[in-house]
TrEMBL record:
Coiled coil: none annotated. Signal peptide: none annotated. Residues 20-226 form the Histidine kinase domain. It comes from Corallococcus caeni. This is histidine kinase. It is found in: Membrane.
Amino acid sequence: HQARLVQHEKLAGIGRLAAGVAHEINNPLGVILGYVRLLQRRAEGALAEDLRVVEEEAVRCQDIVEGLLDLARPGRGPLEPVALRDACEEVVLRLREATRLGPQGSVSVEVHGEGTAWAQAPRLRQVLLNLVKNAAEAAGEGGRVEVRIAADADGASRVAVSDSGPGMSSEARARLFEPFFTTKPSGTGLGLAVSQAIAEAHGGRIDVDAGPLGGARFTLSLPAPSREQEAAA
Ligand code: ADP
Ligand code: MG
């Protein structure tokens, strides 16, 4: 309805602007990061600590630029069958490398179920990564995340990501998918906006409700493939 339309126009506007600006920002940002990393190798003590902050913030700028580019082109390309179980487990592994995700880490993550989605594989992985990352961040130290994959007989599929975190306020819930809405001190607020744009570009969507683990549950739904897609596989 109306809110959705406004949201779409906002995204399209941001996208056009971003595509132009991102290109210009990316190069100098790359140079800044290159020099910071060079300086870090020679620095010690407090200076090294300060340079680490510079590096972190520059990486955050890169994340924002990348997120804006993703909003500009959520993707319209050939679809391929993606094994959801493998995709989810890959995402968990990647996050485990970057953060302290269980079993060795502090958040335990379980993946259940099987299914195949027709999607642009890298884009779909990006959505799964965003949802699992948010869930792990919400669950926090000692928390739990559960990923449930389900497939219908006709080929439609769903991936539900639940966490044991605090859930969200009704204000947050109303604004989750807005670009730049974040309640995290160093969040970009682009993860869910990009994810929703990608889901919609695939003819699907992301819904939120209260999950079985006490926190939120984000469900990605993707439609069944068309006859042509299946025939082409
Ligand atoms: P970011 O993670 O950078 O804040 P996102 O777009 O991924 O941006 O998420 C936007 C906001 O939605 C988060 O800051 C948080 O307030 C809320 N949110 C997302 N996932 C969850 C979750 N699993 N539980 C509670 N709140 C969530
Ligand atoms: Mg996020």
